[in-house]
Amino acid sequence: MAEIFNRPTPPPGQCGRWHLAPTPEDHPRTIHVTAPTRLIDSAALDDLKQRIMRTRLHDSAAQQLGTSNLRLRALVDQWQNAFAWNEVEATMTELGSATTMTTDGRRLHYLHRPAADRDQARLPLLLLHGWPDTSLQFGRLMPLLADAGHPVVAPTSPGFGFSDEPQGELSPQLVAADVHRLMAELRYARYLVHATDWGATVASALAGERPGAVAALHLLQPPFDRAFQVDRTSASAAEQTYLEHMDRWSDRAAYVTAHMLQADTLAAAFTDSPVGLLAWLADKYDAWSGDGIRDEDIIANSATMWLTATFRSSVRLYSEPAADWDTSGSGDWGAARIEIPTAFAVFPDDIGMPPREFAERFFAVQRFTIMPRGGHWAALEEPQLLADDLLAFAADVS
Amino acid sequence: MGDMGYDFHGSPSPLVGLVWRVHAVDGGEYTDAGNEFWGLSFDVDAAGAPGAWLIGPSPQPRHLVIRAGERGWGVEFPAHVFLRKIPKLSLLGEMRALPTDGRFFELAGVRFPVPTYEHMEDLADALVAQGILTFDLELARVLAGEDVAYSERQLRRRTTGAAGLGPSRIEQLQRAREAYRLLQSGLTIAQAAVAAGYSDQAHLTRAFRLIAGSTPKQLLADDLDPFMSRP
């Protein structure tokens, strides 16, 4: 039988009905806890419902900037009338929702689809999301990968959704250590990492620190800070075009600056107002995606972030000291080149289209694919395109 | 090429010469006049097998065979547009097979989605973003007949480097197309020869043999002439 450990105190508004999962017989020291059948209690859901019902929007004649009232009303209407939180929980359960504990006693939530036959299993796949998502981002992708015979693990990054934040600094290295330990617990010694957004930063940290465990990387973008770590005098014409695009993007990405410098101010509004949070997130979903993103995805994610009250903790990767990017030097600095075989799947509606030669500065690129459609949320928008590319690369490296 | 279901359209993109497609119900043959252009083409045969090709410029006429049931489509780039990593000199007269699975094809280490006839410009843009496709605007002006302050040697080197063909060869190809246009507009062979800048009808006939594989007379009688595949 499994040993019992100290359960974490569930965050306020959540019920704490934890269940012990059967422990693998050949690995008795591993402790796994399945996710509670209900993650959010009905009082919290009622409160959310009331707040959405009492939504107050501005009626200013000002020019529209950011999420429009028109767009927001449509989303709010759907949230109010066509969205059921218990379906989100049911989806997570279906995908093997579970939690484990970190060494410092934090709850780490993950989705896990083991292989039907462990001995016949293909290379395990670790999927890492970014901001403002959770492992739910991979809800459509995971079954496609698992059906091809790969064990699939999608952790929710610490500070997001049902994964607790650390008391100390939240760095990409900490997230990397958490997910590596999770893979070890699940007895996946060597695995391929697919990642996007902040997940790509974590994946790079993980590959740097655990080159023996990370068989390969499959990324949607180079980590964003890399665009500001290049000696521009050495950039090719195509790289210049890309870097100038990233400069223009960054000049207008007010949210990054706000996350870095005014996270608490924002958190006061977004922890209180679900529709305020929805507007903040919908902005990004709309701007960086193609036609494939669904309003229900935006709502499910906003609901997860609001119900778990995790806006502030979710932006810690922007706001912690480690994210204080220094771009004042010259020459290539900062990130070392990662020599692990790496594939890029670049989606045209994502924030930028890096040229292969730019990615090669930082990664040992073995495969570089421009996709016909889809954006920043490729796993939600174009799961089949993404799965095909990831599976083909996994077959190449194993 | 009407009975082979061939059509083409121009493009708002200055990088793209023309976008074309062909559907051969019964199969057929076509001789394409020599030209300084180059391109990418995609096809699916009757059995569904895909192909992707890098087509180099060719000063000589090319004999093309299209099998029954085959569909093809592609993009033709002007001479001042070129591949950064693949010199056109190495592609002269060549159709080089590129790896493809019908959904993606690979060029210079990057897998691109196989484009549709309707969205060929997306491919051109992606090729530029990847630094694979590049262009020389000064050369475009030279090829359009404008004066640029180059020495003859500079001009030859720059043109051959980007276009794969020297300036006088490109001028011959351009002149032949101009003569063809004049013939189509109703001029006699002798009139067209002089108007296009040939010293006489014999020179025009000789140029057409070399570039199109047929004489002006044969060409005017043909349903499918070697200059028809582009404007």
Architecture overview:
The complex is a heterodimer of chains A (398) and B (231). Chain A is an alpha/beta fold and 398 residues long. Helices cover 41% and strands 13% of the residues of chain A. A 10-stranded mixed β-sheet of chain A has the order 1-2-3-4-6-5-7-8-9-10, with helices on both faces. In chain A, strand 9, helix 14 and strand 10 form a beta-alpha-beta unit. In chain A, helix 5 packs across helix 6, helix 9 crosses helix 10 and helix 10 packs across helix 11. The longest helix of chain A is centred in the middle third of the chain and has 16 residues. Chain A is globular. The N terminus of chain A is likely disordered. In chain B, the strands form 4 sheets. Chain B has a 6-stranded antiparallel β-sheet with strand order 1-2-7-4-5-9, with no helix packed on it. Chain B has a two-stranded antiparallel ribbon with strand order 3-6. Chain B is of the alpha+beta class and 231 residues long. Chain B contains 7 helices and 12 strands. The model of chain B has no long low-confidence stretch (mean pLDDT 92). Chain B starts with 5 loop residues before the first strand and ends in a 10-residue tail after the last helix. The longest helix of chain B has 18 residues. In chain B, a hairpin with a 5-residue loop joins strand 4 and strand 5. Chains A and B meet through helix 7 and strand 10 of A and strand 11 and helix 1 of B.
Quaternary structure annotation: heterodimer
Beta strand count of chain B: 12
Mean pLDDT figure of chain B: 92
Q: How many helical stretches of chain A?
A: 16
Please give the structural blueprint.
The complex is a heterodimer of chains A (398) and B (231).
Chain A: E1 19-20, E2 33-34, H1 42-53, H2 69-81, H3 85-94, E3 97-101, E4 107-113, E5 125-128, H4 141-147, E6 152-155, H5 172-185, E7 191-195, H6 198-209, E8 214-219, H7 237-252, H8 254-261, H9 263-272, H10 274-287, H11 295-307, H12 311-314, H13 316-319, E9 338-346, H14 356-362, E10 363-370, H15 378-381, H16 383-397
Chain B: E1 6-9, E2 18-24, E3 28-32, E4 38-44, E5 50-55, E6 62-66, E7 70-77, E8 81-83, E9 95-97, E10 104-107, E11 110-113, H1 120-129, E12 133-135, H2 137-143, H3 152-163, H4 167-184, H5 189-196, H6 201-212, H7 216-221
